[in-house]
Amino acid sequence: MAKSTQTSYPKDKIKILFLENISEAAIQLFRDNGYSDVRKIAGALSEEQLIQEVKDVHILGIRSKTQITSTILQHATKLQAIGCFCIGTNQVDLIAARKKGVVVFNAPYSNTRSVAELVIGASIILIRKILDKNKYAHEGKWNKDAKGSYELRGKTLGIIGYGSIGSQVSILAEALGMKVIFYDILTKLPLGNAVQKKSIKEVVSKSEIITLHIPENGTTKNLINKTTLKYFKKGSILLNYARGEVVDLEALSVSLKSGQLSGAGIDVYPVEPEKNGDSFTTPLQHIPNVLLSPHVGGSTEEAQHNIGEDVSSKLYQYLEMGITTGSLTIPEMSLPPQEGTHRILHIHNNVPGVLSEINSTMSENKINILGQYLKTNDEIGYVVLDLDKKLSKNASDLLRLVKGTIKVRVLY
Question: What's this model's pTM, rounded to 2 decimal places?
């Protein structure tokens, strides 16, 4: 990415903090473009620690462990943007961030392939009962037996949630000769020969393997419970590489022990340890043909590199040009730079009359507007103003007086 015009604030004064061992690709992008004050911390921080760290930070990068609360945002008085270097944003209080005018970005697609490949790999391991054979081999016991071991070819894969990951799993599964059926709350255009079904019950009752790719919210908590598990095809396998709260693990344990399900692959849990080495317990431990992994669905070198490049690029473009494409809090806007101007960003509550007041204020003070861009959502308005350099000296101070103003930033 080519270096752009110097921002109004000296680049060596802009503080950037990356937590949770974010990929070096993210750090390198900023350093290559003149931002020298970039710090990286290996792990997550507690709320108390983060309050101390974010006081003077302009850009914050996190992964899934760091919790950004409204309290933290109240202390982050200089914070411009948060980059979530992962798919989810549950760890950020998006409402509080929106009210503070803090842009939040994530990486919804960068690790989809890593998760999809692991789902297929786990399917093969579990349907062949390789885990049990591996255990015997390590114990020095020879157990060469085909009983209960099957091929994926010809089997039906049921996908709950046909989004970016679910659809990729669908393609890979069909390439291996599987039939694919899926359920999604929205009507989706199937890829390949996949078929959308009208209910979860219809999918789980007809599938040898069921894989979940749904978000965590009020409608999905414990979606797979003792009631829905009764609908599962006898001897089927459940995979959850989505979110920890969507499966009732106690109920799943009962179904596995009773033989209703023949196996499970679980990568996410309702409660997860804070750091590597911490103790971990789950009701699924020590049950045969259960593959447990520590939330590594998207944890490949390729995925972390791609996420690092994706999110850091969004943060950089916002910092340098005011571009908010991919934002979850501020209206999305992509706009070209304009030579010979001062660019000012104005984030405000979406109430009537703000744009009119901005324009009349500029006109009354004889400040010429050479370019103006506006985008709103239900709560927030985002205006980018390109002003005549010779006439706009006091513009930022005037804009701060406009009713409903949340944040004003002179970009260049």
Answer: 0.83
